[in-house]
Amino acid sequence: MLNTDSTVVRGQISFQAQDRFDLLADGEELPATLSGNFRRTLKQQHTQLLVGDWVNGTLQAGNVRITAMQPRTSLLERSTSSRFRQSGNQAIAANLTTVVIVTSANHDFNLERLRRYHAIATVSRAKPAFLITKTDLITATDLAKLVGQLTATFPGTPVFTLGADQEPAAQLAALLRPDACLALIGSSGVGKSTLVGKLTGEDLYTKTIRQDDAHGRHATTNRRLFVLPSGTRLIDTPGMRAVGVAEASAGFAAQFSPIEELAASCQFRNCRHVSEPGCAVKAAVQAGTLPEATYQAYLKYQAKEAR
Ligand SMILES: Nc1nc2c(ncn2[C@@H]2O[C@H](COP(=O)(O)OP(=O)(O)OP(=O)(O)O)[C@@H](O)[C@H]2O)c(=O)[nH]1
Ligand SMILES: [Zn+2]
Predict the structure, then answer these.
(1) Where is Zn(2+) annotated to bind (predicted)?
(2) CATH number of the domain at 75-247, please?
(3) How far is the CA of 271 from the centre of ligand 2 (A)?
(4) Which one, 35, 118, 139, 305, has least CB within 10 Å?
C-alpha cells in the first residue's frame, strides 16, 4: 500500500553537499532533498539553498522533501564587489545574526583587512563583531591599544577578546544567546578552528575529512551548522575560510583582466579555460600572447574560488 502520510516540517539547513541536505527541525537532524518543483524554482531564481536557510518540507519515511524556503534575513557572501558576485560560488551562509570577525593579537592584526571583513559583514545584514584571539601573546597594554583602535575605527561594533588561558563561552557570553546564529570569518591561522572545537566540545577538525589545498594548508571540506550548549547556532564552513581569499584576490583582478577579456571570445560562456574546446584563453597561452605564469596563477585562483 502506498504510504501517503506526510508530516509538515519546518527547519534550518545544517549541512549541504551538492543536492543532499541535513535539516535541523525540533532538535533533530533529518536528511533532506529538494522537491522537483522547488528545485526548478531555485534554478529560475539563480539561487541555491545554503546552510542557515529556513525551509518548509514534508517528512516521509524519515526523509524531508523540501518544498519552500523562507525569506532570508541575511546573506553572507565572499565579497562585496559585484564583479566577484558574478563568478558564482559567492554565497556562504544565510540568516546569520552576527558575523564574528576573528583576528589574532599578534602579527595578523591588520586594520585594512579588518575593514574589508567588516564591509562583508555589514553588507550581509548580520551584525558585525570583532574577536581578538591569542591575547596571551601580548601585554595587557598592547591589547588595550588594539581594542582602542577597533572601537575608534568601527564605533558601535563590539570587541571581544580571548586568550589561550580563557574560557571561550565566558568571553563570548554576550554573543551566545539562544536565538543567535553566528559565523566566524578571518584569516587562516587566527584560531577559528580551535575556537569552534572548544565551543562545541568536539574535536571536529581531527574527525572531519581534510584535504590539502594548493598551499599545502588544510581545509575542512564540509559546511555545517552546530548547535552549542547555549542553543546558539554556529556555522563553520570552508567558505568562511575562503572569505579572505576573495578579498585578497580583489587585488588580483587587475592581473587577470586580460583573461576576462579573452574569455568573452571562448566558445562556451561558462568556459573554465581548462580543457574546453574553443577556449580563447588557452589559445592565447599557446600563441604566446598570454604569459603562461598568469594563466597558471589564474587556474590556482579559480580552484580556490570553487571550494
Ligand atoms: N597562543 C595562542 N595560540 C592559539 C590560540 N588559539 C589558537 N592558537 C593556535 O593558532 C594556530 C592556528 O589555530 P587554528 O584554530 O587552526 O586557526 P584557524 O583560524 O582555524 O585557521 P584555518 O583552519 O587555517 O582557517 C594553532 O596552532 C593554534 O593552536 C590562543 O588563544 N593563543
Ligand atoms: Zn576558455
Answers:
(1) 266, 271, 273, 279
(2) 3.40.50.300
(3) 5
(4) 139
